[in-house]
Design goal:
Order of helices and strands: HHHHHHHHHH
Shape: globular
Distance between the termini: 42 Å
Oligomer: single chain
Largest sheet: none
Strand content: under 5%
Number of helices: 10
Length: 200
């Protein structure tokens, strides 16, 4: 491939495969589950359903009048791509909701919680971003991008030693480009004034 595929292009591709209708169906499934769960859990499921409905709406705008995707992962991948489009456009709360929906619909995938963590980080809610990214790491502990995001969130949350340890465990090729950039920024002092707690 001669060019980098953007999240917008990815989302459009998933939308053409029926991801919008798939997200809407997953939202309904979360609502049904919410009807039989205790109150606190039901609230999280309903929030996730709202996020998937937002993703469905965003995807429908990219490719309207397409049937339901034949495979459930298409809708969830489309939701993640749509969430990243929202994140890039500065619609941070929307991206957070979409990530929550994907996390509820696919708890064995780190993508939803990683998106939640990125959206929280962008809102300056560093401690909450740490928590979300820790959840993503629990699902996929060896995923280098998530490890680097987690280390960055720790640093900005004021947990400098924990960030250094997290970064050391992701250093080198396993840490990916973001890990290498973060490591270099910390070593040269570029982030010395950054962070310090953030919102919880």
């Amino acid at each position: 491939m001669s060019h980098t595929v953007t999240f917008q292009e990815m989302a459009r591709g998933y939308a053409r495969q029926g991801a919008a209708a798939s997200c809407a169906a997953q939202a309904c499934a979360l609502d049904v589950r919410a009807g039989v769960e205790p109150a606190l859990r039901a609230e999280a499921l309903r929030r996730g359903a709202r996020g998937l409905r937002i993703a469905a709406r965003l995807l429908a705008q990219l490719a309207p009048d397409v049937g339901v995707a034949p495979f459930r992962p298409t809708g969830l991948r489309g939701a993640i791509a749509a969430g990243h489009v929202a994140l890039a456009a500065g619609r941070l709360a929307q991206a957070e909701l979409v990530g929550s929906g994907a996390a509820e619909a696919a708890p064995r995938s780190p993508a939803g919680l990683r998106l939640v963590g990125q959206a929280l980080f962008a809102q300056g809610k560093f401690a909450l971003a740490v928590r979300a990214l820790r959840g993503a790491l629990a699902v996929a502990p060896d995923e280098p991008f998530t490890r680097a995001l987690h280390a960055e969130a720790l640093w900005f949350a004021g947990e400098r030693e924990a960030a250094r340890r997290a970064l050391a465990s992701a250093r080198g090729a396993a840490g990916g480009p973001l890990g290498a950039a973060l490591d270099a920024a910390i070593r040269c002092g570029a982030l010395d004034g950054a962070g310090g707690g953030g919102c919880a």
